[in-house]
């Protein structure tokens, strides 16, 4: 960043956790300079136009919100406060997406060009190894910053500004790069999301001209409507119709008040022969929807998925999951064992196969293979070429012990190894604590690779017992970052995450598959190791795996979170393919437009 970089530290309180359907209740902005010194602060309540949600958390009752401005009345002032500044927040993708969606509903766009997540910055500074969790109150206490009233937007933003000032100083002293993300890389999905269809009726096919709607018909809406889009979706859903945001071969009807207008949906409807009706006709037909044919019940919750077969796919073959036997499942974290127990070791230099083998040796000896240089790294193993690594300067400044590969077995264990995450090798499995209706988990993926030749995109598929999606909306990626209890988070140039709310997954979903894909001509052989972690809603990472791709792969299956009886399990996969993300999506049943 340049020396004149300025920041806007932001906090929002909301009616819920889902930006697509929940609304903003209050906003606070604290402006700081490049050193983190506060120059101004501002906050406001916001009338959401709906129930305020969990009052016991944020304390914003309808009485307190009475007379507050609507979001449209404060949008211009918020733009002025954010303009020309880096957007900073604790879990920044959450706050940014809420504000971006509120602004998008007004037909506008936030002026923020880049953002920074203080949770990611805290993790880069190694605080995840020092603190019980990275919640704002915990991190604030670590830096000695007072936080009097949590979940008050101005109080939280003021405390976060103090945390950010200390974090900036620590990052500067240790040479830690700031986790800046270009906001354009994660454009929020500002479409109104239809209610989830639970599949109660079979799709009877196309609407006949002059005929009736039938329960189970698949319907889409495009263009301006007289009723709010949410109200149209609600009426269709209540009538037993399957409302989608896309038009495909199985669509029954498209609703459009201006069918001559060229949109993606109208063009697709013409191409597939899907009939088009206007809003008035839809409302008339909704008054007499015919009963549909009940869909057969699929019992998926109690099913025990068979372990994926070990195959080497040929061109065009569908992907499989793990390629090595799973290790024994573990239910609780344990103190590590082995001659390198308690060590977190970073490998620098060397050709990819040699470095990958070194990381495997570290894991087999009880150590943990690091991907990035953080405060938790205890040792560095140098292979040929390591002396040219930019990170070596910081290694020497921090006085981290440096070893050769031959010295690795003799490094020795830490006297009192701390409780570490369960370490999984490729194909390893661990039971996630709790039952099938447990709290959210986050699967993070991190790497050290930076190259103009391409970027890493993390995505997820919601899969049924046949390893297929039920609809295109069950593919969560950069253009559709949320769906069915799964949400993509991008809070660092070399770190992305998939948040999975197990209690909010559709009943038919037995597996969430987390994948990564490369843009451009890059391959995972150049990316090197990818570290995958499973993190509960509160606390430290529960399980970790370091996955090394081979040479030419452009997509990689990172992890599966899947149902096993009444519990959920995590499998570290590590299977790569030479094809792109579109091919991978197609093999999982997603319809990909040319």
Describe what you observe in this structure.
This protein is of the alpha/beta class and 594 residues long. It folds into four domains: 7-186, 2-Layer Sandwich (Nucleotidyltransferase, domain 5), CATH 3.30.420; 218-286, BRCT domain (Rossmann fold, 3-Layer(aba) Sandwich), CATH 3.40.50.10190; 344-410, Rossmann fold (3-Layer(aba) Sandwich); 422-587, sav2460 like domains (Lipoxygenase-1, Sandwich), CATH 2.60.60. The protein is built from 14 helices and 27 strands. The strands form five sheets. The chain has a seven-stranded mixed sheet with strand order 15-25-24-17-22-21-20. A six-stranded mixed sheet has the order 3-2-1-4-5-6, with helices on both faces. The chain has a six-stranded antiparallel sheet with strand order 16-27-26-23-18-19. A hairpin with a 2-residue loop joins strand 20 (482-483) and strand 21.
Give the gist of this structure.
This protein is 22% helix and 24% strand. The protein is α/β, with parallel strands linked by helices and 594 residues long.
> Residue ranges: pLDDT <50 for 5 or more in a row?
185-191, 298-333
CATH topology of the largest domain: Nucleotidyltransferase, domain 5
Helix content: 10-25%
Say what oligomer this is: single chain
Task: Considering the chains and any ligands shown, give keywords for the structure.
Rossmann fold, alpha/beta, globular, Nucleotidyltransferase, domain 5, 14 helices, 6-stranded mixed sheet, 594 residues, 4 domains, 7-stranded mixed sheet, 24% strand
Q: Which helices and strands, and how do they pair?
A:
Blueprint: E1 7-14, E2 24-32, E3 38-45, H1 55-58, H2 62-65, H3 71-82, E4 86-89, H4 92-105, E5 114-117, H5 118-124, H6 136-142, H7 153-174, E6 180-182, E7 218-221, H8 229-238, E8 242-243, E9 253-255, H9 264-272, E10 276-277, H10 279-286, E11 344-348, H11 352-364, E12 368-370, E13 379-382, H12 391-397, E14 402-404, E15 422-424, E16 429-431, E17 441-446, E18 456-463, E19 475-476, E20 482-483, E21 486-492, E22 495-500, E23 511-518, H13 524-527, E24 529-536, E25 543-548, E26 555-564, E27 567-577, H14 581-587
Parallel strand pairs: 1-4, 4-5, 7-8, 7-9, 9-10, 11-12, 11-13, 13-14, 15-25
Antiparallel strand pairs: 1-2, 2-3, 5-6, 16-27, 17-22, 17-24, 18-19, 18-23, 20-21, 21-22, 23-26, 24-25, 26-27
